[in-house]
Amino acid sequence: MSKLRILDGGMSRELMRLGAELKQPEWSALALINSPDIVRKVHEEFIAAGSEVVTTNSYALVPFHIGDERFRKEGAELIARSGQLAREAADACSDRKVLVAGSLPPIFGSYEPENFDPSRVQDYLKVLVENLNPYIDVWLGETLSLVAEGEAVRTAVAATGKPFWISFTLADNATQRNGSEPKLRSGERVEDAAIWAASSGASVLLFNCSKPEVMRPAVETAARVFKGKGATLEIGVYANAFEGEQGDSAANEGLHDTRDDLNDDVYSRFACSWVEAGATIVGGCCGIGTGHIHRLRQALLG
Fold first, then answer.
1. Peptide bond preceding 106: is omega within 30 degrees of 0, i.e. cis?
2. Which of 15, 42, 255, 273 is the most core-located residue (most Cβ within 10 A)?
3. What is the maximum span of the chain, computed from C-alpha positions, in angstroms?
């Protein structure tokens, strides 16, 4: 079994906790514009909590959030800034090596697979890849709702020669939580996504930004596919803490309420279950903070 690695958690609420202003449409990109020191501080606090991988705050640096005009004029600079801040925080850690993952978000909106445009996606991904590349160790295509988004990331990063991780967001409505076959938010089966991943060249397949309750079946499905194909990909999970149903609203429409029941101990028990099922990389997404990561590391690594 591969060594367990701990990811960071969600960025937005930690930014606000430390005093950054977040509002739509820019959302977490606003902190890069107005409060870059706070962005670096969030990375540092996740590292102090036990994270071995920090993710660049580039998720909202797409026209969906900052608009086409600002993306054309300032996108490259802001993307590079997100990479530099994560790199500085990672390199300042003296007791262990911390990797920087370059966040490549769904270009046309979270949870909105119907908006994916294969004819335009590389135009935007190219800007992200070129400007993050000097600072990152691995690529992380995250919160992807359909396999075609994963393929777009694979294409975009191929020339860099750096490893890439693909993270899909899962359907997590009541039907899925009650044991239905695990699916992506597009409706595609996790089994088919894992089959694609096994031959994609990705080094890790992850599941993120969905309720903790649907993660283990996805891990079990991926582990079964990889074993059957003799694939060596690792499996990772970083769930969110959103309250209620998310299927009818975009993940980034605003600040969703978070669950009161998902405290540090409860989340760490979920994480232990994912590891039991085959995950070797775990962390948190929206609403999972430094306290969760600290407790998760204690539970998994002692």
1. no
2. 42
3. 49
What is the rounded distance in angstroms from the CA atom of residue 89 to the CA atom of residue 292? 20
93 is in an annotated binding site: no
Backbone angles phi, psi at 207, to 5 degrees: -130, 130
CA 186-240-238 angle, to 5 degrees, is 85
DSSP-derived 3-state class of residue 289: coil
Superfamily of structural domain 5-301: Homocysteine-binding-like domain (3.20.20.330)
Alpha carbons 246 and 173: distance in angstroms, whole number: 8
Token readout for 108 is: 């046309």
Non-local (6+) Cβ contacts of 69 within 8 A are none
Tell which wins on pLDDT, 253 or 181: 181
More confident residue, 250 or 195: 195
* Helical H segments across the chain, by residue range: 12-17, 29-34, 36-49, 63-66, 68-91, 121-132, 147-157, 174-177, 190-198, 215-229, 264-277, 290-301
Handedness of CA 302, 7, 267, 215 (dihedral sign): negative
Which has the closest alpha carbon to 52: 10, 111, 1, 93? Answer: 93
Predicted TM-score of the model (pTM): 0.95
pLDDT (tens digit, 9 = 90+) per residue, 231-271?
A: 999 999 999 999 865 544 455 555 568 899 999 999 999 99
pLDDT 10s digits, 113-169: 999 999 999 999 999 999 999 999 999 999 999 999 999 999 999 999 999 999 999
Separation CA 293–CA 282 (nearest Å)? 9
How buried is residue 145: exposed, middle or buried, by Cβ count under 10 Å (0-12/13-18/19+)? buried
Domain boundaries, the chain: 5-301
